[in-house]
Amino acid sequence: MTSNKIKNFAEIDKKYIWHPFTQMREWKKGIPLIIEKGKGNYLIDTNNRKYLDGVSSLWVNVHGHRKKEIDNAIKKQIDKISHSTLLGLGNVPSIELAEKLVKIAPKGLTKVFYSDNGS
Q1: I need a surface site. Which of 46, 53, 56, 90 has the fewest CB within 10 A?
Q2: Terminal C-alpha separation, the chain
Q3: What is the pLDDT of residues 29-52, one digit of tens each?
Q4: How many other CB atoms are there within 10 angstroms of residue 43's CB atom?
């Protein structure tokens, strides 16, 4: 990526994004770190530098980035539907997974509760 494009991303980021759990006054003084991609346990910025993703991109990539098995399952699912809430509705993947989880859970655990954002 060219340095002008990286600089432009940094300017747009500072202008339009409010970063959660970030002290914005201090953050705006520096040059933002802009992640372009991920591979395995690493995030890769726009300068192609690698960083260990120590928070699994906030809990949604605990198996790493670009895992073929997971990517292929996502591609297959996206052809059907990208998201469906569980607010009074069911959906096939959540039902199938719940059944599998209950079968391997300790005796007495008979329900599954999906929480967080579903990513």
Answers
A1: 90
A2: 28
A3: 888 889 999 999 999 999 999 999
A4: 19
